[in-house]
Amino acid sequence: MTEIFDFFQNLTNPEWIMENGGLYLLLFIVFAETGILLGFFLPGDPLLFITGMILANNTLPDVDSIWSLLYWILLISIAGILGNFLGYSTGKRSGSVLLKRKDSFLFKKKYIVQAQEFYEKKGGGAIILARFMPIVRTFAPIVAGIVKMDLRKFSIFNIAGSFIWVGVLVTAGYLLGENEWIKNNLEKIIFLIVLIATAPVLIKMLKGLRSKGLEKNAS
Prior knowledge:
By secondary structure, the chain is mostly helical. The protein contains eleven helices and no strands. Helix 5 (about 65-100) packs across helix 9.
């Protein structure tokens, strides 16, 4: 358990990342978070910001920093696209099984229900919006597969959403990565990113608890 905690703690350390697989490690993490059912707990948003910081401070010799930025945005976006296609395929093939599965420590049916409600409310655009929402971004493509969303339509939203998500966060980290205050307060920045990303989910949960409380009092 300690090793797992240390691993997640190290994922917010740019130096540790560069010493343990570099940015190629992030490709796997982004793929896992967006495509593998148990990847919902991975910290995608902070990692993308940190990727931009790494690129701003570790440009390869004889390589223009802008080209390095575009190269990694392309690779990470492809990882996110492939991850979502895997999630869509999983939902399409195993949706009924997932909905019947009992809750466990690593899997809770409510995550799929939340993603399904979000998807039904936002339509195809949910695939794009979900990219910026932890947990939901893992389950949104699975739900799209469960409801058998048109593959061509899903592909368009999937590709656009991945490039927007990766492009925005990596570029933000790149532009702010050389700022000394940002470097010295990285933990605060990461906390802020997580807070902003999870705010919609937290607000929805609070509204749900409030409505349940009102219903209980009324009865």
